[in-house]
Design goal:
The protein contains four helices and five strands; from the N terminus they run E-H-H-E-E-H-H-E-E. The protein is an alpha+beta fold. The protein has a domain of 113 residues: Histidine kinase-like ATPase, C-terminal domain (Heat Shock Protein 90). Strand 4 and strand 5 form a beta hairpin.
């Protein structure tokens, strides 16, 4: 497991039922790391290292890092300023879950979509999840009052296995 040295958040940080995760409550995640806006760089480095170690095709490593970064950035911006990433290596697939506690949705100070957000972000927001859906093999988002669980999966294997039609939207 790769960790940036930060103390893990208590399980209350995860939405109900999220602890079972992709491992079904049986296998611990190969990577379990909490993050905030100041640790996204370390998170990207940990994801890249784990993707390489798991045997993700070299051409897909950038897709993995991009997808996880987009989900983590959304958790920071819209989910209370922090989140948790867990990655499971199922042997044939890497499954990543980014969770937050949803605290930012209520308009907490410095979070959410305040009036001055559009001035700080000159690009139209909302394209990150679309990009993630284009690069990942499987995607899902479950949002509720207690937070959001966003999952992406990437097939491990030779590049010829990975040729697939473009994805449209979230599943």
């Amino acid at each position: 497991m790769i960790d940036d040295g930060r103390q893990k958040q208590p399980s209350a940080h995860r939405p109900p039922g999220a602890d079972a995760g992709a491992g079904g409550g049986q296998e611990p995640p190969a990577l379990d790391q909490v993050f905030d806006g100041d640790s996204l760089y370390a998170l990207r480095a940990a994801v890249a290292a784990h993707g390489l170690q798991a045997g993700l095709a070299e051409g897909r490593l950038g897709d993995l890092v991009l997808a996880v970064h987009e989900l983590a950035a959304n958790a920071v911006r819209h989910g209370g300023g922090r989140g948790r990433l867990q990655i499971w290596d199922t042997g044939g697939m890497l499954r990543c879950e980014v969770t937050d506690d949803g605290a930012g949705r209520s308009g907490a100070a410095g979070q959410g979509s305040g009036a001055d957000d559009s001035a700080r972000w000159p690009i139209d927001p909302g394209h990150g999840l679309w990009v993630v859906s284009q690069v990942a093999d499987q995607t899902s988002v479950q949002a509720g009052a207690s937070g959001t669980v966003a999952s992406v999966s990437f097939v491990l294997g030779p590049p010829e296995i990975l040729r697939r039609p473009p994805r449209r939207g979230w599943r």
